[in-house]
Amino acid sequence: MKTLQRMNATKPAAAHSSTHALGVLAVLALALCLTMVTPVIASAADAPLQVSVSIPPQKYFVERIGGDLVRTTVMVPPGADPHTYEPKPSQLRGLSGSRIYFSIGAPFEDAWLARIVAAAGPSLSVVPMHKGVTLLPAAAPLHSDEAEHAEGKEHHEDHHAHADGHGHDHGTTDPHVWLSPMLVRHMSLAIRDALAKADPAHAATYRANYDRFAADIDAMDKKFADLFAALPQDRRRFLVFHPSWNYFAHNYGLTELSIEVEGREPSPRQLRAIIDLARRERITTIFVQPQFSRRAAQTIATEIGARLVDADPLAEDWAANLERTAKALAQATGR
């Protein structure tokens, strides 16, 4: 009887012990779940801000301001021609993770920006970096004015027939705004503000990074101004195949002379006129870029004994590229 009583007495204690054990297990399970979920939440919060841009120099601008806090996708890869480039379907699909698209007025945006927005979805914010920038007129080809004058009326008539037949439009604007240091300083404010809006927790970092970038641009601008200041007025003209450097030239009192406009090479008669003018100008250097054919430039260089020098307006390392090009221009114009 006593044994039975003792057995009955132990039942509540055993039940209480079992309930306690279950409670402990539940707490441990919850703690384990939280341990597993917390790194996922932290990882998502610490992930870089996904942004997209049109051309490689913009990647440089974004990363100078965003640093490790951003990850940048470039739509037009190095070596491709932004006038004709068509994004791959995989690139359009990859835009789905981007929060911001920085446009800059590159020619391919005219045809593709609307499709890029549609592919990315409503979460994508498009920020036009070049908004408010006063665009320069597109450079007329060298054979449209000065070479025409050299050739006389016969060439004048031939040129207009050639232009009409190929749709030359010398009234369009020049899109190469990223080759002016001071315009980049201004346009990068849009990058700073857009990143701060999308990621307010790091707004102070974006502001500080912009200030450092702006200071570097100011120093670069002064260096270039000093480099070209001593050039005589009759030595401030340089010859390019494709007219990309007009904004840079405008900043530092230079004049860009172009062989072609909008991808059109000169006719044989125009080519002869350009050669004559290049001789009179004592041109010793012709600047070319990897996105375009060198054929016409090489023909002129061979005739006048000039050399070809690469000046890539789409190089990703924007600052180093401008330094190299400025030195090459100073050497070419200081002949």
TrEMBL record:
One of the protein's GO biological processes: metal ion transport
Segments for region (Disordered): 145-174
Biased composition (Basic and acidic residues): 145-173
Family annotation (Pfam families): ZnuA
Entry keyword set: Signal, Transport
Family statement: Belongs to the bacterial solute-binding protein 9 family.
Lineage top rank: taxon: Bacteria
Record GO terms (molecular function): metal ion binding
Keyword Endoplasmic reticulum: no
Name of the protein in its database record: Periplasmic solute binding protein
